[in-house]
């Protein structure tokens, strides 16, 4: 008997000397049979204040409570060992990330008798995970952004074109594209230098971004001196107005061009198209068609807009 008591004291000492917090709940009464004194150092709540599972549940972040409680109860009823991560409230109103590792103890008849487990402070791990997630999102955003102008890049445009094409096919709403190419940009760089050329691109990108403000609109640098606007739920009349605003916006910037074949300030040529995806029409065919319109505008004298509509692959006009 003495040996058993000594062994129990040794086990308790070992449990209470770890950073993990041991606990036990009687299943029939839903009351704590034991919780380690380390709980007070971690959360501030006295060891004796942990009486029932209600104390555990109410000291949990409201956003986590229903999810965690429902999960733990269901797993315990099924006799399945489990783990749960949640934010536990400290006595002074702050929160600590906890991982509860739960073992279900059954009696000889296979009925749930008690729950025993450990609480672990995983706050530092969560901070590290959140920082990694933030960095991942930041890198993902950078991978979708043009480094010079700060607007979307070709990769972002390609991704969104596929998404919006599918949505337009589903909804039956029109989808429009505007491809804008700065006229005689090589000559501009030759006459004014590449630093001035970069500034020209940034100013035009800023102007275009101000024209397409709806959440689903995309303004991207398409490559070199080309920009593209992806405009969901935009019909032929609306996109013509936006295209004209692009031409006017470039003109209003009044960027001097010392070697243009068109004007003494920077101008742009535009290909503009509207599609209502139908049948075998593909987004790539639509994009290629609008790109051909751009080159028609350039070969037709530059500083102009060329438009077309697509209802089926063979219906460009």
From TrEMBL:
Domain annotation GGDEF: ranges: 173-310
Occurrences of domain PAC (ranges): 82-134
GO MF, any single term: diguanylate cyclase activity
EC number annotated for this UniProt entry: 2.7.7.65
Record-linked Gene3D superfamilies: 3.30.70.270, PAS domain
Catalytic activity of the protein: 2 GTP = 3',3'-c-di-GMP + 2 diphosphate
Any matching Pfam family: PAS_3
InterPro entries: Diguanylate_Cyclase, GGDEF_dom, Nucleotide_cyclase, PAC, PAS, PAS-assoc_C, PAS-like_dom_sf, PAS_fold_3
Cofactor(s) the protein requires to work: Mg(2+)
Record SUPFAM superfamilies: Nucleotide cyclase, PYP-like sensor domain (PAS domain)
Biological-process GO terms, alphabetical: cell adhesion involved in single-species biofilm formation; negative regulation of bacterial-type flagellum-dependent cell motility
Enzyme superclass (EC): transferase
Recorded GO CC terms: plasma membrane
PANTHER family, A to Z: DIGUANYLATE CYCLASE DGCM-RELATED, REGULATORY COMPONENTS OF SENSORY TRANSDUCTION SYSTEM
Name by which UniProt lists this protein: diguanylate cyclase
């Amino acid at each position: 008997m003495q040996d058993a008591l000594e062994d129990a004291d040794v086990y308790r000492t070992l449990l209470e000397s770890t950073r993990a917090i041991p606990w036990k709940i009687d299943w029939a009464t839903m009351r704590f049979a034991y919780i380690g004194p380390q709980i007070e150092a971690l959360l501030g709540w006295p060891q004796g204040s942990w009486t029932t599972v209600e104390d555990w549940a109410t000291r949990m972040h409201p956003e986590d409570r229903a999810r965690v409680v429902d999960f733990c109860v269901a797993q315990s009823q099924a006799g399945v060992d489990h783990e749960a991560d949640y934010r536990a409230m400290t006595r002074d109103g702050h929160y600590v990330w906890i991982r509860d590792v739960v073992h279900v103890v059954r009696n000889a008849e296979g009925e749930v008798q008690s729950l025993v487990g450990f609480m672990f402070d995983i706050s530092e791990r969560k901070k590290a995970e959140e920082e990694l997630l933030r960095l991942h999102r930041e890198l993902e955003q950078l991978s979708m952004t043009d480094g010079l102008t700060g607007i979307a890049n070709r990769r972002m445009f390609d991704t969104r074109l596929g998404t919006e094409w599918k949505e337009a096919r589903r909804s039956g709403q029109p989808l429009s594209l505007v491809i804008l190419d700065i006229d005689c940009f090589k000559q501009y760089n030759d006459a004014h230098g590449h630093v001035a050329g970069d500034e020209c691109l940034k100013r035009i990108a800023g102007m275009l971004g101000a024209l397409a403000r709806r959440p689903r609109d995309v303004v991207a640098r398409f490559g070199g001196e080309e920009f593209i606007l992806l405009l969901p739920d935009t019909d032929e009349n609306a996109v013509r107005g936006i295209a004209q605003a692009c031409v006017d916006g470039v003109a209003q910037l009044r960027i001097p061009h010392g070697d243009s074949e068109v004007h003494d300030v920077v101008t742009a040529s535009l290909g503009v198209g509207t599609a209502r995806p139908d049948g075998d029409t593909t987004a790539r065919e639509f994009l290629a068609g609008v790109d051909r319109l751009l080159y028609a505008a350039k070969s037709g004298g530059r500083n102009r807009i060329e438009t077309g509509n697509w209802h089926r692959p063979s219906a460009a006009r």
